[in-house]
Amino acid sequence: MWIPTEQEKYGVVLASFRGTVQHGLPLEIGDTVQILEKCEGWYRGFVLKNPNAKGIFPCSYIHLKSAHIKNKGQFETVIPTEDSVITEMTSTLREWGSMWKQLYVRNEGDLFHRLWHVMNEILDLRRQVLVGHLTHDRMRDVKQHITARLDWGNEQLGLDLVPRREFSMVDPDEISVTELYRLMEHRHRKKETPVPASTHHLFVQVKSLMSSNLGEELDIFFYIYDGRESRPLSERFFVRLNKSGLPKSPERQCTLFVDLGSSDLRKDVYIVAHIIRIGRMGAGEKKNQSTVQYRRPFGCAVVSIADLLTADSKDDHQLKVYACNTESEWYQIHDNIIRKVNSRYNLSGSNTGLSVSMQLLHGDMEQLRREYMVLFTRGVSVTKKLGFSDIIMPGEMRNDLYITLERGEFEKGGKSVARNVEITVYAFDIDGQILKGQVAAGSGEAGGDEYHSFVLYHNNTPRWGEQIKLPIPVDMFRGSHVRFEFRHCSTKDKGEKKLFGYSFVPLMQEDGRTLPDGTHELIVHKCDDNAVLQDYVRYLKSPFSKSNLPGNNQAVKGGKESFWITSFLCSTKLTQNGDMLDLLKWRAHPERISDSLSKLKDIDGSEIVKFLQDTLDTLFGILDESSQRYGLKVFDSLVHIINLLQDSKFQHFKPVMDTYIESHFAGALSYRDLIKVLKWYVDRIIDAEHQDHFQQVLKATEYIFKYIIQSRRLFSLATGGQSEEEFRCCMHELFYSIRFFLSQDSKGSMPVAHTQGVFLRTFPPIYGELLKLFSVREVATFVHDTLGSLPAAPNPDCPLESIKLQCIARTVESQLYINPESRCILLPVVLRLLHAHMQEQRELVMCARILTTMLSLIKKDDTDTTLQEEVDLIVEKLLSVLLTTILEITNRPQPSGGNTLRLQFQDITGEFVACLLALLRQMTDKHYQKLLQRFTSKDDLRDFLLQIFTVFRILIRPEMFPKDWTVMRLVTNNVIITTVLYLSDALRKDFLNEKFDYKVWDSYFYLSVIFINQPCLQLETFSPSKRKKVLEKYGDMRVMMGCEIFSMWQNLGEHKVNFIPAMIGPFLEVTLVPQPDLRNVMIPIFHDMMDWEQRRSGNFKQVEAKLIDKLDSLMSEGKGDETYRELFNSILLKKIERETWRESGISLIATVTRLMERLLDYRDCMKLGEVDGKKIGCTVSLLNFYKTELNKEEMYIRYIHKLYDLHLKAQNYTEASYTLLLYDELLEWSERPLREFLNYPMQTEWQRKEYLHLTIIENFDRGKSWENGILLCRELADQYEAYYDYRNLSKMRMKEASLYDKIMDQQRLEPEFFRVGFYGKKFPFFLRNKEFVCRGHDYERLEAFQQRMLNEFPHAIAMQHANQPDQTIYQAEAQYLQIYAVTPIPESQDVLQRDGVPDNIKSFYKVNHIWRFRYDRPFHKGTKDKENEFKSLWVERTTLTLVQSLPGISRWFEVEKRELVEVSPLENAIEVIENKNLQLRTLITQCQARQMQNINPLTMCLNGVIDAAVNGGLARYQEAFFVKDYIVNHPEDGDKIGRLRELMFEQAHILEFGLAVHEKFVPQDMRPLHKKLVDQFHLMKSSLGIQEFPAYVRNSPIHFTNGSPRTCRNSAPNIMCPEGGRVVARRSPLTYPAVNRYSSSSLSSQASNEVSNITGQSESSDEVFNMQPSPSTSSLSSNHSASPNVTSSAPSSARGSPQLPDKHKHPRENTCLSPRDRPCSAIYPNPLDPTAQRMNAHQMGDTTLPRSEPNISAPEKVRPAASSWSLDCVKETNTPPPTPERLLGPPVPPRPQYTVGSPAKNVRSQSPISTLRSPQKNSVPPFTPSPTECQSAGLVSNSPALSGSYSSGISSLSRCSVSDASGTDGLGIGIPGSASGSGSSIGQHSDLGIGMGTPPLQPPCSLLPNSASGLADDLAGTRKTPPPYSAIERSNARRPVPLPHSLSVPPQVDPPALPPKPHQMRKPDAPPTPTDARRPPMEPPRPRVLPRKVSQL
């Protein structure tokens, strides 16, 4: 049975548990678990990191730990009862663990490794703490180390700053907000600005001396030297080196120069090293027998301390060693080096150097001992500063006498040369005994008994400058003396040192004064016998210094020999001051008391503090004995000493005085005199002229009161409390005097104000002393009355104001204020002064400090009545002014005068905010009620609410607190939401109904919205542990505020309309927060808004507009998700179910939902790492949505530029140009000013349009779309010409010319086109279940494109068939890609069909402005005839129509319409023969025009047709279609059969002519082949039964008068005449363009060959005729071989079967997407729509820039002037029909027309967008010119590289001859008898005549006069080549689907009137031509709505 646990609540997992048992909970080692229940060795509970997953686990796997339980029961929380530092370490390390792994993933290796080391270090420290064996101090150090590491890691990982007190985390609820702020601020400042240390130390370690001439031991003396004052700052550090230059004692090679002040770290302070060698007198002397060694100068090295501040402390310093040029300069060699007096020193040796390690350390000695323990464990010596440090510490014991051997003057002593003088120094005690170890050369070595100076060679006036240290104990100082013995050091063999004199100096005078500091000239007493020196008593009686000789001893005084020393005493016990000694011995000389007291002020402070206790005893002794006589002087002396301790140098002696007062002071009667004298001074302050002395007295008030109180206490103890009333009376009188003095207005007398300030500074410390004798209330009353006497109103000019506040601050920080009993007395006066200053906005820093201290005393859960009253008082006095202050300081500009000011500004803001939060958190319901009741008028309440709401908005700002202060932000938000809940009642009560105030409610809603949206409340971004903590402590405050918003909104009632549409955006932002509860609460508000807007205005257009505007900006910021879209849709649809306006509401919701879909897709695509193609496609989708569905022009333009930037990044320059054109066309050539927008400056519309034109031209140029650029050049040139800007006109014409040159000179690759289907729900919305055609990149073939798409969509599955997918694929939760190549159907047939147009020009029209694409699939229908398979061979042709032409604003566009047509076998045969005829004509023409460099292509083509060995040639067609059975079974095909027969005859005629041409040009070696072809041709003719050609055939292709069919246009009789023969009307699908036909004309009975051709497996030589680029070929040239995208629909095993199972089903195993096996065909690259006769005439699309007017049919569109390709939206006007002068291209020469029977069978149309297209009606009868009138060279490519052999297989579907140019799209629409030949059908003329400005269709030739026919010829002859941008591309109606303005062509009318051009002024209008009369009347253009202007963009 499971029993709830009582004690076993918390544990740690010891071993991992898989949880494989039923209800088992998987555990990992180290997890912490909370235990709920227990049962027979099993626990039930959960892991703390995942509390939702509960389960069971074994007890043995858990180590139990004690814990506290909060909220015992269902929602209990367990807190482990371990050290809080341990708890924090554990949780922090867990959090770091996951983030640490992410560092590795993000490749942040440096931080990864550093964090790893820190984590290991923390774990080691954690183990030490857990063991519990640490001492208290060590535990403290370890915890400090841990918290420092935790803070470092949190900062590096961007985690929150943790507030701590004594290393433990604090609970924000358990301390006041002000205290929390101080803790946070303290930790933040500690992290930011470390406090600079005031004490510094220099660590020096001697490594070695490197020199080539060593061999003797060396002494090195280091000391710090002040170059500015030329004196040493420290004693010397002494190191002895051995003969190798290494330290003799390694343990004594280090020192620490201590107590350097900040002023010592300057550039002119140096470290000097003097090097003395110990050896022979001369460095180069030969070794002799003498063993005597001398100390001799060697060298000196100097380095500046400033260099150490910048140098790396780890590197050793190599110091150069210099030597003197003359030894006499040795004493100042360091000065010479510093001053760079190069003449007096030189380098000791080129390779001589001293290696030293030096490092500056900062902080006090205790800190150094902790941080640098290693230094102190290896015996580092301490080298002291000369004199005391900047701060003298009490208890410091020091008694060091420093003597410097300066110089001497000696006689020769009978020698011929000067002496070599050595000084030996001894110290003797009072008994004449040598003081052992008291003579030290420096700090490195222990002191010795004697010291020997160095020797200067032959120098009678030597200067040494050697410093020695005598650390003689204080008790041995009296009677001691120092003796200096002078010896001459002989350089002879014996090397003896001969004594010749001595000097001495006593260390203390008889009166107790020590040897004065300074230089002393000592007498040199002659002596050559050491025995004389033994009698010290005798020589001590003789004089020692020349300065104290008696005046009659002139002989000694004038002696020539002298010796100078400098002494300096640094002692804490001995003095050299006689006045000090006189004062201390006052009883011995009572008459000197007054004089000694007067001289006390002149004594140095260091002397006074040495004898502080003795001095104070002396003063109070004098006061007790002679108070009347010396009372005032003693008081003044006491004041002097007290103020002396205020000095920073002596401030540490204050505790000494405190100790004296408490323990040693015995003046029980002194208080009376002190009170009396103090009152005497206070009473005279106001009248005194000079306030200095009074200020000194008041400055000492604190300690005077201490003496008064202690004296009174001693008196009370001694007398049992006598004279109590007298004492109290005296104190009251004293305070009365003080109050009177303070109450004086300081306006008139500034000095008094200064004196008042001095007292106020010293007043607060008195409180504690008074409390020793008075009660709390009494003292509080004293203070209240004293502070209350100050003037309340602040005086800006008075310096007293800041001191007042400082006094108040120290008052509230005192123990007196902390006591609640006294606080209630002091609070009113504190608040009065505080309010006055805050109201004037003065001294805000101090005000913040006071307020912070006051409020930190109030705890959150304190319910004491007195405290509640205090809160009420503070609220009443300060809340309003506090709000005002916060508003003032946050609206001020931040100071820029440096970091200090800025930090102070931030601190003061933060402190006031913390005070406000603390105050509001303490307020209860009663406080709020009282607060609101105090507002007597509604206006006051309104102002207060607006003020507090504004302040709250400021508090929510991200910059209010540092980013890692999450704890502070959460507390702030908790206080805000609590306050808002209280204040919302006031809104409901006082500002609703007739009292409604919009501004207050608006401020409330605005605050609520930004509250919910602030980053620190977005719990989803937090780690799970952090989120759990926040939810446990505060809950989700966003939901709480959201519910409050909803409640307040419901209360608004009819006033809701005031917030529509203003609050739509803010509320929408709230609903986008990813919190389900919040969304459920807030989304219904939109329904409410729609309802009220509907009531007000009958629609909710405003709601819709605002929603759409805000959605874009919000979602682009990363807000919102798919869940939100679904929730928004479902909630609102449910809400509006019963509304009367339900339909319009559903429409709005659908629109917004669709916009969300696109915006979400756009955001996902714009993420870093996404491919450019996806980004571009998504942007296009969104751009079109804004234009077409939402009509949001500004957003549309913004996305135009976003798309433009994406194209530029992807180097899609053509697409970038088209994109920018969308904006360009919204502008007009006007002078309207435009505002600054995006990156455009403020400029006129003309300037911006000009800039856009130039940019677009440049991009067209880069994209090699030069034809488009030319048109823009022309338009811009027209503008320049109109404004007579000839400079720019010239540049533009040159630019245009350069583009023409590039067209002719540069090669352009023709891209492949691919159809891509995106199926499945996992695709973005803009792609989902749609099909597109994509323009491939340069050199990109199908395989490469397929791989690129799979890379863009790595999760997609490639479909291996071309069938349309079923619904299961559409609805699948996956991604399916279907890709195959398609063939473009060009629109610009006039250029492609024209002779003589270079391929460079044609190549542009083949692949630009393409609307339609084709894909063919051959199949067999019915029973397959194995003998002749062409009887059942059908073709399924799919035509895809796009929404926009390619290229355009994207590389791919969606398929708008899909049409499926089945081409019958007969029609197929007709097409094949037509294609072959056209190919033959082209090759013949090229051969005649000598465009072919070799005749092989013509040879192979003729051979393939005449000798069709593979497929049987034309015989197969005869067998299939000319037999009786077929004619009987298909009576409707009679016309087609006739057409086929005529084509056969025509082919034979062309072959005959071709053989004639071939004979003319065939080389000699190919003559046999030619003869064979002629023979085979005669056999072929006979097999066809042709004896003689019909007249119309005979007259057409044979008689080329000049070798070209073009010259015989009118030589044939009209076939419409009776003698002209039979007319065959050819209808679609036979009206295919003659560019892409089958290449064979013979048949074969071998079915296998036929099938192999169909499936693309044939080895036939037909491939050589596939002259259109193949989508799959790997060739990089523009000459491609076969089109490999033809395949059978049957599986490979069934390809020879007679019947396919189902023509619509392609088995998946058919790998039809491979280059040779995919089910798409290039054999018909330019198909004509087989249903064209039943469709409209618009199917020829506008292939200009993507602009068309879908609602105007082709005849209704009017072409503007040819020279102006207007991109802007011009005004509508009616333009007359175009005249011949306006023709842009010649009429296409016609081919013979034949009437063909019925149209194609089984037409199936599949269109994604259902669109009806009305056919274009034309009543003009057709005309039938001669079949020879064809553009023989314009339709078939003249590719220079044709290879392989030709076969004549008419139905070889996989190997067809494909022209480089495309044929005509079916244009003979609705015209009976329209023909399709080589691209010159009536359909073409119909469209060309109307759309291009050519004359309308003419009647038959028999009805036409010759002049009319000649006119057509003339036009054809004069306008051979159209402009680069064909007119049909501008004028043909394209599609009836409405497009946005940017994607539609404006009405083709004349542009607005401009100033006439010069040539226009000269040139008259051309008269109308006769053909105009015969032209049918044209319908006027339909009126259209002008596009909107750009809204000042």
Average of pLDDT: 76
Report the span from N to C terminus. Answer: 78 Å
Number of strands: 43
Radius of gyration: 55 Å
- Beta-strand share of residues: 5-15%
- Major β-sheet profile: 6 strands, antiparallel
The number of distinct helices, counting runs of at least 4 residues, comes to 64
The structure class reads: alpha+beta
Q: Into which percent range does the helicity of residues fall?
A: 40-55%
Q: Indicate the overall shape.
A: elongated
Low-confidence spans: 1591-1993
Q: Can you characterise this structure?
A:
The chain is an alpha+beta fold. Helix content is 42%, strand content 13%. The chain is built from 64 helices and 43 strands. α52 packs parallel to α56.
Features:
1993 residues; alpha+beta; six-stranded antiparallel β-barrel; elongated; disordered C terminus
Task: Produce the secondary structure layout.
Elements: E1 3-4, E2 10-13, E3 32-39, E4 42-47, E5 54-58, E6 62-64, E7 67-70, E8 77-80, H1 84-105, H2 109-131, H3 136-156, E9 164-165, E10 168-169, H4 177-192, E11 199-210, E12 217-226, E13 231-232, E14 237-241, E15 254-261, E16 269-279, E17 294-304, H5 305-310, E18 317-320, E19 322-324, H6 333-339, E20 345-347, E21 353-362, H7 365-371, H8 373-377, E22 381-383, E23 399-409, E24 421-428, E25 450-452, E26 463-470, E27 481-489, E28 497-506, E29 518-523, E30 525-526, H9 536-540, H10 554-557, E31 562-571, H11 578-584, H12 593-599, H13 605-610, H14 612-625, H15 627-644, H16 654-664, H17 670-683, H18 692-699, H19 701-719, H20 724-743, H21 750-762, H22 766-770, H23 776-788, H24 800-812, H25 815-818, H26 820-839, H27 844-856, H28 865-891, H29 899-922, H30 925-933, H31 938-956, H32 966-990, H33 998-1013, H34 1024-1034, H35 1037-1052, H36 1064-1071, H37 1076-1082, H38 1084-1097, H39 1101-1116, H40 1122-1135, H41 1142-1165, H42 1172-1190, H43 1193-1209, H44 1213-1224, E32 1233-1234, E33 1243-1244, H45 1245-1262, H46 1266-1282, H47 1286-1305, ...
Parallel strand pairs: 15-22, 36-37
Antiparallel strand pairs: 1-3, 2-3, 2-6, 3-4, 4-5, 7-8, 9-10, 11-15, 11-21, 12-13, 12-14, 12-16, 16-17, 18-21, 19-20, 23-26, 23-31, 24-25, 24-27, 27-28, 28-30, 29-31, 32-33, 34-35, 34-37, 35-40, 37-38, 38-39, 39-40, 40-42, 41-43
